[in-house]
Amino acid sequence: MDTKYENTKINGLSLPYEINSSKEKFNLILFSLGKTVSLLGTYIYSFAISLYILRVTGSGMSFALSILIGTLPRVILSPVAGSLSDRVDKKKLIVILDFLSGTVVLALLTLSFLYGLRIPFIYIATLLLAIISTFFNTCFSAAIPRLVYDHNLVKINSYNRAIDSGSQVLGPILAGLVFGFVSINLFLFINGVSFLLSAISELFINFNLNSSTNQQKPTGNMSMKSIGEDIKEVFAYIKTNKVLCRLIPFSMTFNFLITASLTVIFPFLVINTLKMSSIQYGLIEGAFSVGMLFAAIVIGKLPEKEKKRKDLTRGIIGMGASLIIMGLPGLSFLSGLNTHVVFSLYLIMAVTFAFFLLLVDLPLQVVTQRSIPEHMLGRVMGILAMISSSLMPLGIILAGVTMEIIPAYFLFFITGFYFILSALFMYKSKAMQEY
């Protein structure tokens, strides 16, 4: 076993460098396996079940309802998930939640054998899985800093994002293959077993490798009153944390504008304005995930910089510049460009934008994780998830309304310039000087 006792300083703290590195590697491997199997299973289930609903009902409303059912729990229950994850043993909760996911899918399989795979059964299973996923993701996010020592926090967050992006790319592909060549019942069996195997792998993760010995857990049992008190405590803490006070407003507008730009404005610009095919649009969407996967791997291999402010600034400016370039083909004097040229430009810009997005997102995650006390991490992450998720529907609605007034390409220019100005403002901010 490698047991070096060399010290490194991060944010002025002397920390052990590569203490019990074999344990860290073991944690990283098990974390990656467990998260991949669990997340990939979730994406495959969501995509394959959506295809099944469309094939059986032929109804866009039924399809939209399944998406809504899968989205609402994250908006509503994230603060509850954060409160629970700070009060209980994270390892037990994560294992139980993955076990419950497997149980729900296998229960749906059993009902399918007994009564046939009915749409109401699917809706109930989708709702339960969305609730479980909300608690699972919040708890796992809060547990990440405990799985490795501080100097490897960027690496494990890179792995986490690589798994997210890889699952987004592979999930629909594997779901399409499974849906085309395997019966729905066999698919449900494989999916349910995969969750159970993920739960088993998580049993062997050391969730206290980098845990504080004097951590303070919230006292009292879970109740509506205690959840309300937790929310008040989190907001009171945020007011005292200068870094979070600066990052949260940016993150809120960041998620708001990204959702509006990529979910509504971009597809409208590509398909309606530029008259590109749905296949070309699908490939461009895939390029975003490929770019994030590539960025996560590259950033994870690089040594961590003690100061992240410059990378954050470069990343935000890069995102802003990418959005401005993506709006250019909409200009009237460039409308004569060959579709294949524009398609190639968008492929390059999608990968570039995704790279800069992760260059911003990973340092933000690490700065946030380091600036929050361990005993509050779950609750703060839960509140942040609720805030970011709740603004997404608003971004979609406002983007749709605004496009009736302002050309889609011009909205890209506005968003791009906003990012560039925000980057310069954050770089000069006193709260960010130490980072």
Quick gist of this model?
The chain has 435 residues and is mostly helical. The protein contains 13 helices and 2 strands; from the N terminus they run ββααααααααααααα.
The Cα radius of gyration reads 22 Å
The neighbouring-strand order within the major sheet is 1-2
Q: Identify low-pLDDT runs.
A: 1-20
CATH topology of the largest domain: Growth Hormone, Chain: A
Helix content: over 70%
Mean pLDDT value:
78
- How far apart are the termini? 34 Å
Q: CATH superfamily of the largest domain, called what? A: MFS general substrate transporter like domains
Walk me through this protein's architecture.
The chain crosses the membrane at residues 28-54, 60-81, 93-115, 121-148, 169-187, 247-269, 281-300, 312-331, 343-364, 376-399, 405-427. The chain has 435 residues and is mainly alpha-helical. The chain folds into 2 domains: 19-210, Up-down Bundle (Growth Hormone, Chain: A), CATH 1.20.1250.20; 230-428, Growth Hormone, Chain: A. It has helices at 21-57, 60-87, 90-115, 119-147, 153-181, 184-202, 224-240, 242-273, 278-301, 309-327, 339-371, 377-402, 408-428, and strands at 6-10, 13-17. Strands 1-2 form a two-stranded antiparallel ribbon. A hairpin with a 2-residue loop joins strand 1 (6-10) and strand 2. It is globular, with a radius of gyration of 22 Å. The relative contact order is 0.13. The model is unreliable at 1-20 (pLDDT under 50).
